[in-house]
Design goal:
Elements (H helix, E strand, L loop, with lengths): L1 E8 L7 H7 L2 H10 L3 E8 L5 E8 L3 H8 L8 E8 L6 H8 L8
Antiparallel strand pairs: 1-3, 1-4, 2-3
Length: 108
């Protein structure tokens, strides 16, 4: 199943800079999820406040599995996470490519 995940990261006031730095291992955590084929895409969305939120496209067997994966992120305690389950759409280009590929063919 695919999920669109919206993250807003809010570091609590008075959090020591050293703690923030220690938790900024998000790149390594994202790479691990990508290698495990859970993280498909990630991008930033500007917010009216001038800040940004992070949008990610994830694959997981269920929302419960995804929540478990996300809870392992270093900044998870400071995140407001919104998960939207995505259902297949008949006009999805990725689905059309998958069904038109000959058997045994690999995608490049």
């Amino acid at each position: 199943m695919e999920f669109l995940v919206d993250f807003e990261i809010n570091v609590p006031e008075r959090t020591p800079a050293a703690e923030v730095k220690d938790r900024q291992a998000e790149a390594a955590a994202a790479a691990k999820l990508q290698n495990e084929e859970h993280l498909v895409r990630v991008g930033k969305r500007p917010l009216p406040t001038g800040e940004t939120s992070v949008l990610g496209l994830y694959c997981a067997g269920s929302e419960t599995e995804l929540e478990g994966l996300l809870s392992g992120l270093p900044l998870y305690e400071w995140m407001k996470v919104t998960i939207t389950a995505l259902k297949p759409h008949p006009n999805d280009p990725a689905a059309a490519q998958a069904t038109s590929a000959p058997a045994g063919a690999s995608r490049s």
